[in-house]
Design brief:
Elements (H helix, E strand, L loop, with lengths): L2 E4 L9 H5 L5 E4 L2 E4 L10 H5 L5 E4 L1
Antiparallel strand pairs: 1-4, 2-3
The chain binds iron/sulfur cluster (SF4) (2 copies).
The site of one iron/sulfur cluster (SF4) has 13 residues, from α1.
């Protein structure tokens, strides 16, 4: 079971995670990233690496 956490304090809604994730885990809602399909996560960690604000944490 993978947990996809977004820190909504530091997320600025840039959309990089939406563009980066190969399986469309994220959507932008009200200028914040929301992990809408965390069960799809492949634990590739691209989103963690690419987020400019370090707002994403993938927990296995
Ligand atoms: S890449 Fe980071 S800052 Fe940008 S929308 Fe995603 S979580 Fe927010
Ligand atoms: S770790 Fe990979 S598959 Fe999982 S949410 Fe991030 S980019 Fe998507």
């Amino acid at each position: 079971m993978v947990e996809v956490k977004v820190n909504s304090e530091s997320c600025d809604g840039c959309g990089t995670c939406v563009d980066t994730c190969p399986v469309e885990v994220f959507e932008i809602k009200d200028d914040k990233s929301v992990p809408v399909k965390p069960d799809e996560c492949l634990v590739c960690r691209a989103c963690e690496v690419q987020c400019p604000n370090g707002s994403i944490e993938i927990i296995e």
